[in-house]
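Proteins fold reproducibly. Next comes a concrete instance:

***
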Amino acid sequence: MFDPAHLQALAAILRTGSFEAASAALNVTPSAISQRIRALEERLGTAVVIRADPCRPTPAGARLVRHAEEVALLERTLAADLGQSEGRAHVRIAVNADSLATWFLPALAAVPGLLFDLVIDDQDHSAELLRRGEVQAAVTAHGAPLAGCDTHPLGRLAYVATASPAFVARWFPGGVTAEALADAPALTFNRKDRLQADWVRSRAGRAIALQTHLMASSHAFVEAARLGIGWGMNPLPLIRAEIAAGSLVPLAEETLDVALHWQVTRLAGRALAPLTASLRRAAAAALA
């Protein structure tokens, strides 16, 4: 058994970013926090915290924090079953930025009593955070259940290749051809984002090296397309009004649909059942 005080100190450090902030959050001295971490590392024979600004977990530390947070969720559920005060528990979730900008937040709002720690990552990579033990649940494109997890299909988030009318007139006067796509400035969320490249490959029948801006914000992505900075794959729920108003126009009729799944660790599954139900309702209303 791990000492709960040691795990609590580790979780507080990684949640607040420093030993000093963790000591304030737990109302103990910084020396006490250091002693608890030292005792934990001596027991494991390995470091659990990378002492940086902010502090980051080692692989062992990440797994221990998830364990501590799952135990806190279980204790909260037990307290509720016994008619006791539930308190608040932290839940760390990986979610892609476009889900966060469209359908995800209303689902969180419907589940009080939890403190959410959201890790923003591409849907094709968020499962890795779950696999490494850094989060307790994830919205992911990975449909097969990971070890120790249950998966729930959410639906398909439709993406539309869009640009401003002026951009289309300038860069695609002869149509959206492979040659024009190789020359026109594109928008890419970050270096993990493959949506534009996948859409181009499906349309052109081959890979094309895109000239692209990097813009890691869903709302800025839409605004950049509207202002004619580049073309990009925007989630349909986020741009329906712009398409209706004519400030954005689709480059093609077909959409690129990304299937999303909710994966949650089995240990936290019962405690997070209300959240799972809320997410599935919100996804059913917003996704295909």
Remarks:
- The chain has a mean pLDDT of 92.
- Residues 157-258 form a domain with the D-Maltodextrin-Binding Protein; domain 2 fold (CATH 3.40.190.10).
- The first strand starts at residue 49 and ends at 50.
